[in-house]
Request: fold
Amino acid sequence: MAKSFWQFWLFLIPGVAVSHLISIFSHDLMDIPRGVPFGRFGVAGTVAQISLMLLPFAIGAFMPAILYFRRYGKYTSGRQIVTCATMIGLIVLVLTLLFFAFSGAWFGLLQAPNLMTLLIFLFAPCLSAAILFLVVFPTTIWLIILWRSLG
Reply:
């Protein structure tokens, strides 16, 4: 599972590139200037923007699952997946905290109306990364096993 942990971070980079390309093509297709957030276009735009933010984490979990199955040819234990997802979530939390500490964004968040806003901005990225890994990694392996058993 240690290799899958490092492969998650390796495949996160192409995931960001794919998400960025989809964003560029979507803006051009809908004739929206680049830099205008999709969230301005109602619920559908908000869902699209959140999906583009989560896409790198999904690709980061999908590709290591394929490589894990090619290497071992079996399903992994749930405990190993939870441990790996916990490590990913903690590292994303540390990176988020470092970003807020060094960017000066913490000053604006401290002036937010309540503490809940601060907690949402700090813990949403790490929880989404960990939950996506917990869901996508075993589901991908399960689908590969199902596909091979059918064929």
